[in-house]
Amino acid sequence: MSRTEVTPQRRSLPAAAWISAVLLALTVGQLLVATFFAAGLEQFEGKGFGARLVLYPAMMLAVPVIWWLVTKDRRDVPWAAFAWIMLPYLIDVTGNTLNLYDTVGWWDEANHFVNWMFLGLGAGLLITRGERGRARPRWEIALLVAGIGAVMAIFWEVGEYYAFIRGGTELATAYTDTLSDEVLGTLGALLAGLIIARRT
């Protein structure tokens, strides 16, 4: 009687996992170039790229690390949510690399709205996991995502102030710019909340 050997099948990583890895690699690569090889270029001066080289990868990896530490789930990893949360960091660094913040008047405002929408989509996907069995109102989901986005916008502006605004050339216009950035970030997160609520 022949014995059939059963070999365990390796589970391949989903596309969103590879996308997350690429987003991280492209962001870190640009940060390394800006910090060590092109620091003298105008678009990188006074932008705190030394601090970003440490903080951006840490913030991009914070949510996945916390997820694994809290849930210890290796089978149903929310890679899509992680990718949405990582995407804004790449967009921000790429905007500096291409000098879009200094050459395109609306780039900064668009970034705060669109990037916070992406962050909100990631946060919304995380907080609505397993929602099928609950009866959470859609308005509650939308406001929860918007609230998370508003808190992130506040912390982001505080970080920008300590990183390169205080004592810099942008201090005179920092108050107006900070208010508009927080409003745009909150509106972007609210839009993400509405999208997630409708999807849920």
Automatic annotation (TrEMBL):
<keyword id="KW-0472">Membrane</keyword>
<feature type="transmembrane region" description="Helical">
    <location>
        <begin position="113"/>
        <end position="129"/>
    </location>
</feature>
<keyword id="KW-1133">Transmembrane helix</keyword>
<dbReference type="Pfam" id="PF09997">
    <property type="entry name" value="DUF2238"/>
</dbReference>
<feature type="transmembrane region" description="Helical">
    <location>
        <begin position="82"/>
        <end position="101"/>
    </location>
</feature>
<feature type="transmembrane region" description="Helical">
    <location>
        <begin position="53"/>
        <end position="70"/>
    </location>
</feature>
<feature type="transmembrane region" description="Helical">
    <location>
        <begin position="179"/>
        <end position="197"/>
    </location>
</feature>
<feature type="transmembrane region" description="Helical">
    <location>
        <begin position="141"/>
        <end position="159"/>
    </location>
</feature>
<feature type="transmembrane region" description="Helical">
    <location>
        <begin position="12"/>
        <end position="41"/>
    </location>
</feature>
<keyword id="KW-0812">Transmembrane</keyword>
<protein>
    <recommendedName>
        <fullName>DUF2238 domain-containing protein</fullName>
    </recommendedName>
</protein>
<dbReference type="InterPro" id="IPR014509">
    <property type="entry name" value="YjdF-like"/>
</dbReference>
